[in-house]
Design brief:
alpha+beta, single chain, 3-stranded antiparallel β-sheet, 4 helices, globular
Amino acid sequence: MIPGVKYEKVDEDGNLHITTSKGERRVIEVDNIILCAGQTPNNRLEEDAKGSGVEGKVYTIGGAYEAAELDAKRAIDMGTRLALKISDESVIPGKHTFKAPVGAEEKLIGFLNEFK
């Protein structure tokens, strides 16, 4: 994991171009890209991949896909399910939804929020 990364682009060969928090530019050769960063929806990499040689291999998950409470739990769930299904043709970028059943933590948060 590389903290504080700025995602620059995905090139025509499917390489991910990044800039580190120290200003170092790097190119990372990847097979698939699963983006899970931030607390606001942001699917720019997935959108930028459309019409390129990597379209269909860039996935936005977690808080970048949908920002809401308990993003880490959702991100881990989505990442795990996506990893298991990444070769499944039914997984369509931008149209995939992986949801776990509501867990005890989410039920408790919902219950406590009623008292705010």
